[in-house]
Structure formats: C-alpha cells, structure tokens
C-alpha cells in the first residue's frame, strides 16, 4: 500500500510545488524502478518489500500500462493541436513578410520608433521580458513557448474606444509583439468615462496616438502601429493581411459586417464584441477553423436607427472594460493555443443581473460572408 501511496505523494508534491511535468514523470519512473528492484525475487529486499506492499509482477506490469496511458494522452494532444492550431502558426509567414503601415507622418514616427524597440519580433525573450512576463511563464498553458508566440504575434484592434481601450492595454501588457490600432476619432471629454487608455491631458489628440502613448508607457517591448484613418473597404483588406488576428471593437454595423467578411475571406480569426447600456456579447468568429462567422449568426443587419449607439443610449463605464478585457483574453488563448476559445459559442453578459450565458452557434449554409460562393 505504501508503494502505491508513494506515487500519489510524489505526484501531489510535484503539482503543489509546480515542478515541471517532465520532472514529476522522472520521479515517478524512479519510484517505480525502486519498487520493482525491491520486490524482485532473488535480488530484492524482502523486509522492505513487505512494508511497501504489492507484488513484483504487479509492479512490473504497471510500467507498460503507464506507458500505454501516456502514449494515448500524447496522441490526443497531437490531435487536439491539429484541430486548433495557434493562430500565429497559421499565418506566421504572411506576418513575417509584412511591413509597418501608418497613415500620417506623426504615426509613422511613432510606429517605426516602436518597431525598432527592444525585444520585438521572434527573438529569444530578454531578461527584462522574462521578469515582466514571469506570471505568464508560470502558467502551464502559456509558459515560455506561449510567451514566444505572443511576442511573434501581430494583432489588429479596430477602434480605440470603449472596447479597444482595455483590449489594447491587456494585449500590450500580455506581450503581444506587434499591435496595430485603427481609428479616425480624436479623444473627447465624454470618452474618458470608459475609454481608460486615454487621459485628460491628451484631449483632442487622435485616439490612435493617445493609445500609442499609453501602450508605449506600459510596455516598451511591443511595437505599436497607429493607423489614424477610418477603416474602409479599399484599404482594409491589405491592412488585415498584415495581422494574424483581428479584434473588432467598433460600434457601427457597416464596419462590423465589412471586417467580418474580410476576415472570413482572409481566413483570420476575428474576436468580436458588442455592447449597449448594461449588456454585452462576445465571440470568436472563425469559419476557417470550423466556427461560424458573424454573418452566419446575424445575417440581417438592423435597420438604420433601430439599434441606438452608446452616445444615444448610454453605457455603464466598466461594461466595455469587462468585454474588452475578455477580447484580449480570447486573443491570448488563440495565440498561445491555451484552453477553448469562444469559437462556435456566443457569450452574453448582463451586468445589471450579474449573469453570463454562453450559447452554441453554428455555421450557416449559404452564408454570404463565409459560404462557398465567396
Ligand atoms: Zn458565415
């Protein structure tokens, strides 16, 4: 009995002390080898074998049985990785070939200065970055390989408003190596009630430059690409092609449907969120990897004026913070391959009742955005 308890004690100690899985496996293998030797007829130590319990043949059989289980789990992990590859692996070549684009001289300077900043790109993590991202490195689901993927990732955030503000801050804090942001607005006083990336002393500045200032102050190891212009059909396709992943934080339906179609066509995952007053929704639209696109689920855009904007209807200040931070969370999961993203699932959050529901959503045959016809 003590022999069997030894396996559990070693495993539990390893998990508690956060030993690496390979270290725990090596200790368990050593314990198994010791049990086999101690209980072996002829060469074993009978008094000790009696204390440890079990039978020599039982302990010998345990080794191959454990190997079969481990091989099965490794096979499952390979299949799972094939089913949900990290997005950076899909388009790393396209991302590597792209160059910074900015729409104004001021933005160009900021973008290029940031692009040459320390730690950008696919190189090894520098000591400063290892300390900065230590809490990520401890996570089994992210660790060093995940942090490298974040560093190599290029993420485009559409809109530096209520949703974009927290999403941008958490993408930069997480160490996403290249962050693009497109918006044609300037910072207004009424924005500051929720758009926490901006500041009172930057009123009147283009939102993308105000955001770039905040992001550079938060993390100098990431490259910021501010695009001070409105996203239009002509330039959007080329812009999206430069990134691995797109976060849509806009509040108008024209842009939302346009971005969805372009991302579906380019095979890029789109993290989309929307909100009003006290409620919000969030999903990963990713038809290239089996999930629906936005238009699969919402094929008909509402009539103009039917859905009031935040400016008309109001919005609770922390609500975009909740949804925007969750957008960044989904981005981190997609880039690192951690967990299960909201692909094929739509999350609905009701802040007034403090309730969150997740419902399954499916691809719609004949969808004009992601169907076979496009
Ligand atoms: Zn679709």
Report on the architecture of this protein:
The relative contact order is 0.11. It contains 16 helices and 8 strands. The protein has 2 domains: 2-83, no CATH class; 87-360, Rossmann fold (3-Layer(aba) Sandwich). Helix 12 crosses helix 13 (253-266). The chain has helices at 2-16, 21-39, 46-52, 56-83, 87-97, 105-115, 127-132, 134-137, 143-152, 164-174, 207-218, 233-241, 253-266, 294-297, 310-313, 318-336; strands at 154-158, 178-182, 223-227, 245-248, 270-276, 279-285, 345-350, 355-360. The chain is α/β, with parallel strands linked by helices and 374 residues long. Residues 287, 292-293, 295-296, 364, 367, 369-370 line the site of zinc ion.
Please give the structural blueprint.
Layout: H1 2-16, H2 21-39, H3 46-52, H4 56-83, H5 87-97, H6 105-115, H7 127-132, H8 134-137, H9 143-152, E1 154-158, H10 164-174, E2 178-182, H11 207-218, E3 223-227, H12 233-241, E4 245-248, H13 253-266, E5 270-276, E6 279-285, H14 294-297, H15 310-313, H16 318-336, E7 345-350, E8 355-360
Parallel strand pairs: 1-2, 1-4, 2-3, 4-5
Antiparallel strand pairs: 5-6, 6-7, 7-8
Helix pairs in contact: 1-2, 2-4, 6-11, 10-11, 10-16, 12-13
The structure holds zinc ion.
Residues 287, 292-293, 295-296, 364, 367, 369-370 line the site of zinc ion.
